[in-house]
User: Fold this.
Amino acid sequence: MFTGIISDVGRVASVKPMKGGQELSIECPFASETHIDESIAVNGVCLTVVSNSDNTFSVQCVEETLRKTNLGELKSGSEVNLERSMKLNQGIEGHIVQGHVDTTGILTKIDQDGADLLLTVSFPEEYRDYVVGRGSIAIDGISLTIARNDGNQFVVAIIPYTWDYTNLRSKQEGDHLNIEFDIFGKYIVQYLKNREQG
Assistant:
């Protein structure tokens, strides 16, 4: 479990194909502190450390993960958002994020609004019920608040600090973003659907 507060931006050192997926080696400042079997959110995707060194740690992605997220688009040099799993003695500064990406969206527009940047993201129509104005959402693992929504698009406001200290700084219009909708909203929507069905 995570909070959506990015601790570091890592860089992909290598991408190696493996049977049924690929292995990513990621450079980051805390690589030497990681341990095998540790869970780390990479662009919001909960992955398991399979090896580490002083400068890098490695994780493996199966085909299902590559299909459902933007990790299959990563290459050597790509920036990735990193968050280590939440500890029970720390506060939840963002919101509860599982690291289970629901879908990818497309960054359709980047606008300036004073000091903030407004990102417009489109997403598949089937997820409309999970998007609520002023609700929480995780984009590439970043805990954000939906400023407004319209159909299958929503807008989030990014403060300069978040822009500078996450991989959003390297994003361009047309890029795919990992989206995880709020877990409480998903439970409520599923509960209501189950009631309607019987």
